[in-house]
Amino acid sequence: MVASRRKVRIHNPILNILLIFLVLVTFYPLLFTFLTSFKDNNQFFTDFWGLPNPVHLENYRDAFKAIMPYLKNSIIIAGISIFFILLTTSLSAYTFARLRFPYKETVYLTILALMMIPSMLMLIPQYILLRDLRLLDSYVGIIIGYIAGKQAFSIFIMRAFFSSQPEELFEAARIDGCNEVQAYYKIALPLIKPVMGTVAIMSLLDIWNDYLWPLIITTDPEKFTISLGLLRFTSSFSTTLYGPTFAGYIVTSLPLIVLFLLLMNSFIEGMTAGAIKA
């Protein structure tokens, strides 16, 4: 027992040093971006590692002014997409977990098989489909792509959670006179809120940071999302202005970081709940 305790004490400093190093490696890029966002080009090149002196708050003013339309587009697209992702996937997951119909497992496995297909292979068919539907260069086209792309994984997580719940709970609801829609709304939805929160966070991160899909189907700058808007903002300068550029990065990244920190416990709870039973 004593030897075991000594061994733990010997390894604790090494583990602590390693953890501190990993924390520094993880957070230093964010700190560097934050400090650089207050510098001008002269400070950036002459005092690369130093603190900004003086502080250039106008960098944030310029960044906000330039990227606000794209920020608005991303909020609209992400909000609508996540709403329909949660609605469609929770209904589908409840159906696969609690209802009986022919070839249920076959259909479910077919949906799961879509997770094995690289997303790059789906871009051309999706583009052609939206082109034929005349939905290119529109919010609707972008949103449809995101909703379709998040179906398989979200259904997988939610179905696992629904399957882990006792059947007696839903049978009791039916005995009390609930139909399937009422059982879904009154029983299933309150139970699955942590998992839906997890799906919402993961979807938001993917949608907010996505660059390729909006690039493919949009050409109108008024429809650009924040990723395309940042590129357009930085390329609008004859020479790169690092202060406003990094301020733009902070403006777009900080909301996601704060949101994840606030909802981290719900995220972990949802992932754990969804992993109870496959």
Automatic annotation (TrEMBL):
Residue stretches making up the ABC transmembrane type-1 domain: 71-263
SUPFAM superfamilies hit by this protein: MetI-like
Record flagged with keyword Oxidoreductase: no
Any matching Pfam family: BPD_transp_1
Topology of this chain in the membrane: Multi-pass membrane protein
Annotated TM spans: 14-35, 75-94, 106-128, 140-162, 183-205, 246-268
Any one Gene Ontology BP term: transmembrane transport
Protein name as annotated: Carbohydrate ABC transporter permease
Source species: Candidatus Alectryocaccomicrobium excrementavium
